[in-house]
Amino acid sequence: MRVTVIRNPVAGGAHTWPATARALAEIFPGYSLVETVKGMTGPQVRAAVTPETDLVLAVGGDGTVGQAVDGLLTSLYPQTAFAFLPGGTGADFSRNFDWPATTERQLQAIAMATPRRIDVGVLQSRVGGGAVKTTHFINVASTGVSGEIVAAIEANRGPSRLPAFLRYRLMSLVRIARYKGAALRISVDGRRVYDGAVLVAAVTNGGWFGAGVRAAPQALLDDGRLDLVFAHHCGAIGNLKIFAAFANGSHANLSAIKTHRGQVIDIEPHGKIPMAEADGEVIKPGALRFSILPQALTVRLPPAVAAG
């Protein structure tokens, strides 16, 4: 099998790379390696994929995985199979799969997996009358306080005494408590479902979001639909209660949290334009349209975790 490995050298888990490289050489001998440069993962993948490539294998966090998928699907060979190794700070997309415990066994599971097809999200962003920016997302794209959290994490990368996961949660708490809400009009398949102040609106292909929160437990990667989860803005105390409910899995019981499913979801800000993100990477904010590409990506991965 001819494998191209796309590695983010600064992602969480970089210290384990020597052992990962040895396992890769044993299971996928002769693999080629591309080390990503910030902001260039998509173009690097497009340049690396050839007619002879059997598998693109990403090593990094959710952002690396999402950008690698975008690069693959916009390459000349979008039918090439895709896989990844779990890693990064949040590792939310990896939670959708039943992974073995060790890197060696994870790579063996990829090598032995039967290729199958899963859905991919498409996000189009337009500011005013400007050009539309289009990107693919594999797990989740969102707007509201989540965009601010991702932007803050990106701005504060670097050495820290705190573990990355704890730093993420602390930044989340601070920004949620201070957030003033975003005025959004939200429509699902052409039907208006909400018009008002929002804490966060997440459109998911997978089930997990925000470093381990199973925000959309019914989400499936191959059902041809997107899951929308949004929370009303409820003031500082109310927003922190919403955060706690997401964290402990009880958010389905809160009246301030709404869920919908559909194929096309439109989120239009009126007033100040909130930040937005896709697979943990900041994107240009604006009027957002989310749509689904059913069965667009061939993957070699372990079995999916059951919904519910």
UniProtKB/TrEMBL annotation:
<dbReference type="InterPro" id="IPR050187">
    <property type="entry name" value="Lipid_Phosphate_FormReg"/>
</dbReference>
<dbReference type="InterPro" id="IPR001206">
    <property type="entry name" value="Diacylglycerol_kinase_cat_dom"/>
</dbReference>
<dbReference type="InterPro" id="IPR017438">
    <property type="entry name" value="ATP-NAD_kinase_N"/>
</dbReference>
<keyword id="KW-0808">Transferase</keyword>
<keyword id="KW-0067">ATP-binding</keyword>
<feature type="domain" description="DAGKc">
    <location>
        <begin position="1"/>
        <end position="127"/>
    </location>
</feature>
<dbReference type="GO" id="GO:0016301">
    <property type="term" value="F:kinase activity"/>
</dbReference>
<dbReference type="Pfam" id="PF19279">
    <property type="entry name" value="YegS_C"/>
</dbReference>
<dbReference type="InterPro" id="IPR045540">
    <property type="entry name" value="YegS/DAGK_C"/>
</dbReference>
<dbReference type="GO" id="GO:0005524">
    <property type="term" value="F:ATP binding"/>
</dbReference>
<keyword id="KW-0547">Nucleotide-binding</keyword>
<keyword id="KW-0418">Kinase</keyword>
<dbReference type="Pfam" id="PF00781">
    <property type="entry name" value="DAGK_cat"/>
</dbReference>
<protein>
    <recommendedName>
        <fullName>DAGKc domain-containing protein</fullName>
    </recommendedName>
</protein>
<dbReference type="InterPro" id="IPR016064">
    <property type="entry name" value="NAD/diacylglycerol_kinase_sf"/>
</dbReference>
